[in-house]
Amino acid sequence: MINRIPAAPTRDPPWFKWTLIAVALAYVLIVLVLPLLAVFVEALRKGEAAYFASFKEPAALAAIQLTLLVTAIAVPLNTVFGLAAAWAITKFEFVGKSFLTTLIDLPLSVSPVISGLVYVLLYSAHGWFGPFFLDRGIEIIFAVPGIVMATTLVTFPYVARELIPLMQQQGTDEEAAAATLGAGPWRTFFLVTLPNVKWALTFGVLLCTARAMGEFGAVSVVSGHIRGLTSTMPLHVEILYNEYNFVAAFAIASLLALFALVTLGVRAILEQRFEAELAAANRT
Amino acid sequence: MAGVAASPKRWRFREPSALGGFWPSFGFVALYLGFIVLIPLAALALRPWEIGIDGVWRAVSSERTVAALKLSFGAAAIAASVNAVFGTIVAWALVRYEFPGRRVIDALVDLPFALPTAVAGIALAAIYAPNGFIGAAFAEHQIRIAYTPIGIMIALVFIGFPFVVRAVQPVLADLERDVEEAAATLGASRWRTISQVIWPSIAPAMLTGFSLAFARAVGEYGSVIFIAGNLPMVSEIAPLLIIIKLEEFDYAGAAAIGLAMLVISFVLLFVLNGLHAFMTRRGGA
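^ inputs. structure came back:
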């Protein structure tokens, strides 16, 4: 007789394992994959010609241009902010540090509509500072500056949040060594700190870009939806959708979805290659 | 803080450091936060009172506002609960098992962070509309999903998906196998190990994920409005009501609703934080 070797005590029975995997897969499929597929299916419903024709419309081109412009302003600002905030928070001890960290996370739990609303309260014709700027011929609300400000507010935590946990973990030893050897702050930053965080920074900038291009609620409040003038890509998607021009709406949406997929793909590749370095940043 | 020395502690704003660049970076951060976050939030806190306390109360307690607030917070709580359950199952499968497509799914979890909300909104509306892929199947049984509160919940489930998975995943990965093995060696059944060893350690992470998903869902706008139908008193969410007030140039009323949303959110998050602290203490670290 051979004694049966008991199964490893911490191994789940196969039925349990495969049921959980099936449930997980089904959930991911229904909640995430289906909507993603729907974007491309709907965009190509009337064929490739109709799909590509959607991008030739002047209003669509204007929307793409405006989105690129807004992104090109908001993302660099937030990148500099993210680096400065991470440097101050992770390399120094000071009073009120945790309060500052909380403030940085704040926009994540504030409705995008409220983020837009606050700028209307400040800069519209009835706002605190609105009349001051309007008297000088500067329109902020229902114009491009308001869209830039609202986008900046909604997307500003993303770079900082990728950097802070990683830089916290790395500590200050390497920078202190550089400083002791006579390197100034800039030199220390560019030659020691930056190379240590370059992949987390890359991903933070990508995520910030994806969010900036796709911001809808906040921009919707401040833009006034002037077609061809203050319509960003997501707002243009809304206009087309409400006009029942579904193919064109989903065609523009598919560009944004593609960019989102690229963002996730780059992250997956970076994570695989530089697992240890990104592990700290791999939290939400 | 780090005053270990016996000499009388002198109050300092910051601890001395060999590194430079504190004041420029701190100054820039403070200035930036001031302009981008603090001054705007001050406007939100102060402007509602232009219409007096009575006016604020009227704006916030009107039937339509109360219905919208209840819908936003209620649907967000249900959606976050759904994600707490299924998100934990997804995290468990991703951490504990090897199966085809695991890496792809792990990467896809973050999709709701990267995909613009309006894109998600029109896609969900297309799927769940009465003539959509899933909506049609339910429409045959006289169940409408799109343009009802159910549709709102579906959008909020999508938006909140990553939070629970990403909160539970690292905790499950860190959970030492030895602890489980010890429990098993000491004669605990698998079920007892799960309920008394694994559950207490992942429950706080689930709550963290729930709170984040909830906070995000309460204020969500873009993915909801296309599928909601936006019927006053039935499927009109609070952020939409703010936009409607703004379009009527009722700025103080809009600010009052926004302020009410923020205050309720922060009170609830504060309670959830307290619960989290209680759970981690009892979970015995």
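Chain B touches chain A through 101 residues (CB under 8 Å). Chain B has one domain: 52-282.
thumbs up if we can close this ticket
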